[in-house]
Design the sequence.
């Protein structure tokens, strides 16, 4: 917002981020347009932030660390490595000499999921839906068994309640004990209307996690999202044929406030359900997007049972900090997740998910930043370094921190998240995930331009990446977050080459045992990015800036509600 940023920052903005009268930046240029404007290779600067970065990544991703799975020997080694480095650097601990924040997890293993039976429908509705083929279902309630019986099915459009968009799909409807069926993503993506929600870029309301949470708040017994590949950004196989095991935080209520069953159904299944009321997916989508949408009974009842095996696990976030000299009770936060996927004992040749890029690189980056900060003048505000557990299990370590913050979130100035650093060399572009959400971008853009680089949004904002990494846990609590990384426009080889490297990583290595340290990596780009992260954090730590979400953002109201606690 305009009154939270010093005039000097406004004068330094790239034209792509000048604010309009509505207090939101103009649309950033396309990646192609930005690239065409920067065809000359820029002079390389800032390529030597911390020479130990390679050592940190290589060590954390070694076979010795066993893939860094929570609650394993790999965690013990990883947490000890981080603590030893925090101690060597001279960071303050959060519990005497300890940097560990205990995190209590539960593993929920659905050992038996019945077929979902459907009753009361006409000839077009099948008697049952096969697990994994037609539907996928689970529970996040920490119980041995759940049973949903003869639950009335109701179509609720996109399953969204968004006051800032004047949108309420549940208006006038009591869904207690019912099964709600809804589309994935949000109306902006469905219409490609830039004036509706956030246009093609997914908002929080489009994420499946939000839809389950909102349905639970409404009292639904079961929540089923209709899977379509384009708006979901992944195929049915990703939904239905991965591991069914769920992880969650241990809570006193054992997640009794969640719906009994969460899940997905195929588009083909949805067509059969809609045909029971003489409709189809496209006609129901049209209704869901209409200004006078009302929930639609499907005249079918659903039943399903799930039996679970439960196992409690103990893990840790690792937190260290530099106390501020003038405002020690105000905090600038850096974060990354230390965990990965552990071991694949069925693999005869390579058993370790080393997670070198994901996310030994981000963990090493946080250690490198802490070291650099400690070597310079004490900041006026406190600077906090948080390495969280169980990101790969559902952002759980960051969710634990958000629910049990070591330092008050209302006094947390902002956070910077690092997940998968650039290992392919200097890039002209800096990709800002969720560009157009927070005025933190304005500080980043200023320092990016000083490196002869340019800022762009992520290439596929419809996939909702802004809601799929640890920064999101703090976003939901209103803390302004910056999640940015070096992009694809390589300073010598260009955008196509850079995109090819990312594509190759996604194909060969992402969440596979092939994500290993490579001596040929060019970390100069990561070093440049570290300078940017440092300069943004340093500016925040030595100023009276209080960044905020732009007007109209779904997290703005949450942040504004705590504004009084930040008054000087």
Sequence:
């Amino acid at each position: 917002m305009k009154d939270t940023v010093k005039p000097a920052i406004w004068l330094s903005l790239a034209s792509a981020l000048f604010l309009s009268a509505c207090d939101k930046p103009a649309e950033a240029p396309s990646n192609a347009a930005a690239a065409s404007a920067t065809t000359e290779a820029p002079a390389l600067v800032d390529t030597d932030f911390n020479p130990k970065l390679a050592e940190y990544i290589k060590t954390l991703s070694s076979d010795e660390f066993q893939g860094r799975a929570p609650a394993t020997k790999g965690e013990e080694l990883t947490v000890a490595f981080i603590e030893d480095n925090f101690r060597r650097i001279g960071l303050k601990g959060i519990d005497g000499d300890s940097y560990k924040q205990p995190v209590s997890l539960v593993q929920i293993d659905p050992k038996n999921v019945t077929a979902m039976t459907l009753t009361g429908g006409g000839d077009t509705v099948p008697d049952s839906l096969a697990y994994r083929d037609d539907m996928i279902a689970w529970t996040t309630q920490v119980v041995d068994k759940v049973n949903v019986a003869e639950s009335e099915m109701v179509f609720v459009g996109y399953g969204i309640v968004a006051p800032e968009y004047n949108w309420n799909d549940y208006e006038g409807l009591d869904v207690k004990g019912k099964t709600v069926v809804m589309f994935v993503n949000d109306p902006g993506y469905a219409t490609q209307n830039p004036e509706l929600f956030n246009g093609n870029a997914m908002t929080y309301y489009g994420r499946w996690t939000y839809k389950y949470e909102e349905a639970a708040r409404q009292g639904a017994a079961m929540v089923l999202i209709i899977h379509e590949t384009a708006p979901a950004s992944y195929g049915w196989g990703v939904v239905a044929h991965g591991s069914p095991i769920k992880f969650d935080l241990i809570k006193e209520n054992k997640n009794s406030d969640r719906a009994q069953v969460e899940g997905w159904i195929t588009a083909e299944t949805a067509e059969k359900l809609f045909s029971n009321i003489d409709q189809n997916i496209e006609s129901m989508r049209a209704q869901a997007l209409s200004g006078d949408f009302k929930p639609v009974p499907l005249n079918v009842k659903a039943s399903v049972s799930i039996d679970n095996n439960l196992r409690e696990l103990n893990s840790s976030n690792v937190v260290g900090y530099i106390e501020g000299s003038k405002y020690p009770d105000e905090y600038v936060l850096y974060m990354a997740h230390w965990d990965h996927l552990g071991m694949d004992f069925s693999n005869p040749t390579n058993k370790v998910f080393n997670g070198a890029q994901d996310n030994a690189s981000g963990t090493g980056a946080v250690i490198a930043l802490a070291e650099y900060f400690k070597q310079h003048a004490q900041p006026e505000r406190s600077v906090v370094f948080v390495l969280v557990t169980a990101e790969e299990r559902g952002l759980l370590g960051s969710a634990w921190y958000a629910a049990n913050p070591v330092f008050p979130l209302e006094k947390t100035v902002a956070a910077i998240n690092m997940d998968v650093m650039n290992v392919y060399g200097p890039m002209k572009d800096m990709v800002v995930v969720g560009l157009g959400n927070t005025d933190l971008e304005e500080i980043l853009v200023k320092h990016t331009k000083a490196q002869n680089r340019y800022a762009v949004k992520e290439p596929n904002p419809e996939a909702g990446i802004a809601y799929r990494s640890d920064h999101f846990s703090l976003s939901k609590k209103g803390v302004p977050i910056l999640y940015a990384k070096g992009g694809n426009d390589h300073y010598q080889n260009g955008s196509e080459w850079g995109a090819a490297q990312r594509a190759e990583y996604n194909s060969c290595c992402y969440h596979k045992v092939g994500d290993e340290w490579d001596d040929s990596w060019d970390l100069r780009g990561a070093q440049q990015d570290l300078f940017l992260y440092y300069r943004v954090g340093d500016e925040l730590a030595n100023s009276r800036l209080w960044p905020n979400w732009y007007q109209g953002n779904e997290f703005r109201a949450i942040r504004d509600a705590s504004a009084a606690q930040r008054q000087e």
Summary: Residues 1-39 have pLDDT under 50 and may be disordered. The first helix runs from residue 7 to 11.
